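Minutes, project check-in

Agenda point 3 was the complex the collaborators sent over. CS summarized: two entities, 621 residues total, and the question is how they sit relative to each other. Sequences were read into the notes so everyone works from the same version.
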Amino acid sequence: MMRHLRPMMRKEFIQMRRDRLTLAIMVAIPVVQLLLFGYAIQTDVRHIPTVVFDDSRTPESRDVVAAFENTGNFAIVARVPSRAAVDDAIAEGVAQAGIVVPHDYPQALVDGRTALVQVIVDAEDPLSSQSALAAAAGVGEVRNLSLLTRIAGRRVLPLEVRVRPRYNPGLRSAVFIVPGLVGVILTLTLVLVTAMAIVRERERGTLEQLIVTPISRTELMIGKITPYVAVGLVQMTTVLFLGRLVFDVPLTGSLVLLYGVTLIFIVASLAFGLFISTLVKTQAQAIQASFFFVLPNILLSGFMFPRAAMPLAARLIGLALPLTYFLKILRGILLKGVGVSALWPEIAALAAFGVLLMTLAVRRFHKTLD
Amino acid sequence: MTAPPVPGAAVTTRGLRRTFGSIVAVADLTLDIGTGEVFGLLGPNGSGKTTTIRMLCGLIEPTAGTAVVAGIDVTRAPDQVRDRIGYMSQRFGLYEDLTVAENLDFYGEVYGLRGAAQAVRSGEVVQFLGLGNRLSQLTGELSGGWKQRVALGCALLHRPAVLFLDEPTAGVDPAARRSFWAAIGDIAAHGTTVIVTTHYMDEAERCGRLGMMSGGHLIALGTPADVARQVGGDHGTLEDAFIRLQERDER
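CS then shared the predicted structure for the full assembly.
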């Protein structure tokens, strides 16, 4: 029996339409977040400001410094006159890396001794120093190989490993971030908006008038969330469309499947918001509770940080978050183009979350004032 | 206390009780209210009027006792009574961001009215309460008196057998109060039982019968003149009775 659903839904639509500010924020959030995350967040760190102390000043030393520069990871900002000046530059923050070529570098090469080149990296931020360390090691290996090949008198390398990055060949952050952003934005806005839903009626005094009517708990809850399903779908479409247009994020798989699964995720998020709404007493508490939930979603779901790198406890918490599953589905469909056969465990998990959370919300909500 | 329910009564309570922790809000209320009565619940703040009304509407569960409203035992089947009662809460409970017409439509549909029947009934209520010129106005922009009329309209749409009004005229100017009470008289004349709480003496005088509450107990019951005599002595007025009661409660 859902005969009271229609008036409830219509009322919510009218109220949503009249609350222009909230509506504008919900539409603006996807655009702003997309541009913010898409442009600003680059996990592949390039062009690290670097100072060089070249104590040998020979063609050989210039050659090795150029090899570092050519990786694109090091941008030489200054040449300094001493080893101490390198340390100073890094300490002062002028540079994040320093390359030191010793006086006897060319002589060591000629003598057959191990020639030494030193790379000093400011490892304060592990993420940005990692690519510098990797690039420095790479330069060393490549140069070693070419030197050894020459000494051995061979024309070709004995072994070459060819790496083929699939699904995101350019290793661009945006390709990784934008699909995840769909999930993060939906979680952020929908949980918050519905967390406020019931408690707002309670605060305004309209709930008391509503619960003396014959409307059932289920009708009240479903009627409340339906308009926001539409909002969620609009948000997702915006992110995907702009992601494609601005960041050239691929749309490889089935759109129908994508929208279908997103619908499940939206319902799960809204149900969670409703559940929060039944736990709190004021709108301020609802906001705090939502953020308490949203933060682990961003950190532990694999949106920005790889879950494989997390300790067991963090991975387990991640498993309890609907977003973790949704991200896998989003990236699977958008980037790899895989279908239900590969994603059904995640889809089933999302559906289970939706049913569980909605049941919890309806159970917790009583049509009484105490 | 175990007297059988009066046949045809709109509201019958037997030993109805509600406690909040150690506070007894309503103590063993036994009351019969006949169909078509305008019954006033009178008493100082905290005397248990609102708690009584909320229990009768199924909004809060009684700690003990029974209450039968419009033939339904609300302590057992609170959901079944909702079709048969109308309720106006003490605090304005309509949606201020909806227009008057949208509020009427919403409550009409929630109470199961549809199509032509809804349009006809809505038209009747609008005409009865003179809401015609206000329909497209946002409810939040109305004055207190008009808000109360719209709230009354929403509570009347489904022709409830019993109408509960919890301090319906608090903060409303005297002229609006007078016309509101004229409407209440009309509603009762059509057979709807009206149960109303108030602290205005002139309003209490307009009720057919009064129950005076103090500290959760029903301390006097009868016509306004009876209640004045029971509480205020032979020459007492209702107001004397009320003030005496309030002073006693505050001590």
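Noted in discussion: The beta strands of chain A are 48-54, 74-79, 97-101, 118-121.
Follow-up: revisit at the next meeting once the mutant set is ready.
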